[in-house]
Amino acid sequence: MAAQGRGSAKNMAIVAVLGMVVVLVSAGMAESAVYNVGDNGGWTFNANSWPAGKRFKAGDVLVFKYDSTAHDVTAVSAAAYKACAKPARAAKVYKSGSDRVTLARGTNYFICGVPGHCQAGMKIAVTAA
Hints:
Elements: H1 2-30, E1 34-36, E2 61-65, E3 73-76, H2 78-83, E4 93-94, E5 98-102, E6 106-111, E7 123-128
Parallel strand pairs: 1-2
Antiparallel strand pairs: 2-5, 3-4, 3-6, 6-7
């Protein structure tokens, strides 16, 4: 009978550890915030000032809402962002009109890839801690 008790205690310890892992993972997910880019105005021209005053963390989600027949969201490099340059072929382009993008640690750069839209201020740089 004594051996049975040790096995039960070991199983209970494993269940307790797994339970703590689930709680920690859930807590990390719960801390992520969701932001609507451009607030009620959505992803549009002169959006470049939208991130000002906001504190973002890696794992936070940006929701880009826009007219998909007129715009897109393109994740670009810092150089492409500054120059409003055509993005590299490997750039991730979103076109649904309701895109959810999870922020990576560091500065994340987004532009509208439609010619002239980035130059008109349809771009944002979001730094996530």
